[in-house]
């Protein structure tokens, strides 16, 4: 304390000078508007620059901590992406296990459901694909779990699908692992229950048997899952089984479907229609006979042409042999004449 007092006493003139300077500056900036504005402007610039420098230093000092936080966030995001990828692969594998591979003659057109009814007797589904996408009536519609229904009507960009949940729907099906088949129908009631009719009484039917498409129509390929048998009962006439089936397709949460096409179906359908129409049968038989006659005529013409070519080749061959023989005979005759002359 003594040293501090001595320092002040020794440098009292400097402290007096500083005090007077501060007092003068206070009076200057307090009673003069221009100097006061210059002071505040300069002070703000200095303070702002100072704060900017301090902020930069603080940010730099906390940069490592921010990096740690970003790395932790990235690690959490990577884990979420990995889990979502695993779930997606599991869903894809589950879909592949449920649905057999479609034959090469089939193609799949994905579509989304834009409207659907579930609690009417004649339910319908509207999808956002139509004739512009190659969709036509009587094409099968499936999802990742099984059969959905059949295309009923089409427009340029939309299609109406008759699902399994329609009293007019009738899908030909069979019991997996056997050749016994029947028809899948729906009765008003539950949105996940349908029934299989016309299964013969001697068929070995058990609960939990898979019901699948049998491929008898050109709409669905064989082996597409439809549902599982819940209960085995008798038909009203007692001549066949009446099976209660729980459908695999969950129509209440259904959003994505696929329309399958069969490139051979027009040819098959035309042939079957001809077989049921006697007039078309006669026309087909006549056209087949004409086609056969035309093929026979072409074959005969080809045989005659080949025979003529063979004769011409034989003639040319004989002519070449004669010319060759005559060319050999001339030198022999000349040699004989020269020998006789020498004698």
Highest CATH level, the class of the largest domain: Mainly Beta
> Helical element count?
6
Morphology call: elongated
Q: Unreliable stretches, pLDDT < 50, 5 or more residues? A: none
The tally of domains stands at 3
Element order: H for helix, E for strand: HHHHEEEEEEEEEEEEHH
Total DSSP E strands: 12
Structural class computed from helices and strand pairing: alpha+beta
Radius of gyration: 49 Å
Query: What's the overall average pLDDT, rounded?
Result: 79
Description:
The chain has six helices and twelve strands. With 343 residues, the chain is an alpha+beta fold. It folds into three domains: 2-61, no CATH class; 106-271, Thrombin, subunit H (Beta Barrel); 285-313. Strands 1-2-5-4-3-12 form a six-stranded antiparallel beta barrel. A six-stranded antiparallel beta barrel has the order 6-7-8-11-10-9. A hairpin with a 7-residue loop joins strand 7 (181-185) and strand 8. Helix 2 packs across helix 3 (33-61) and helix 5 packs across helix 6. The protein starts with a helix and ends with a helix. The mean pLDDT is 79.
């Amino acid at each position: 304390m003594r040293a501090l007092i001595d320092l002040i006493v020794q440098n009292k003139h400097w402290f007096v000078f500083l005090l007077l300077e501060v007092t003068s500056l206070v009076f200057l900036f307090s009673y003069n508007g221009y100097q006061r504005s210059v002071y505040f402007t300069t002070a703000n610039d200095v303070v702002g620059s100072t704060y900017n420098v301090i902020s930069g230093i603080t940010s730099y000092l906390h940069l490592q901590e921010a990096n740690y936080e970003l790395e932790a966030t990235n690690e959490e995001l990577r884990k979420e992406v990995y889990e979502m990828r695993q779930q997606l692969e599991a869903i894809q594998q589950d879909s592949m296990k449920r649905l057999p591979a479609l034959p090469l003659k089939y193609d799949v057109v994905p579509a989304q459901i834009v409207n659907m009814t579930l609690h009417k007797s004649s339910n319908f589904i509207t999808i956002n694909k139509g004739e512009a996408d190659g969709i036509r009536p009587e094409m099968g519609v499936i999802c990742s779990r099984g059969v959905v229904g059949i295309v009923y009507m089409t427009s340029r960009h939309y299609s109406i699908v008759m699902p399994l949940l329609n009293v007019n729907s009738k899908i030909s099906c069979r019991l997996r692992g056997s050749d016994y088949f029947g028809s899948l129908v729906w009765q008003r009631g539950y949105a996940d229950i349908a029934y299989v009719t016309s299964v013969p009484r001697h068929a070995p039917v058990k609960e939990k048997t898979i019901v699948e498409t049998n491929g008898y129509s050109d709409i669905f390929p064989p082996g597409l899952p439809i549902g599982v048998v819940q209960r085995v009962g008798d038909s009203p006439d007692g001549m066949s089984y009446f099976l209660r089936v729980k459908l695999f397709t969950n129509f209440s949460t259904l959003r994505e479907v696929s329309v399958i096409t069969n490139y051979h179906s027009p040819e098959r359908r035309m042939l079957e229609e001809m077989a049921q129409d006697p007039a078309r049968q006669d026309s087909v038989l006549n056209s087949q006979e004409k086609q056969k006659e035309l093929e026979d005529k072409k074959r005969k013409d080809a045989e005659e042409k080949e025979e003529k070519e063979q004769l011409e080749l034989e003639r040319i061959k004989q002519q070449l042999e004669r010319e060759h023989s005559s060319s050999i005979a001339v030198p022999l005759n000349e040699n004989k004449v020269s020998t006789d002359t020498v004698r």
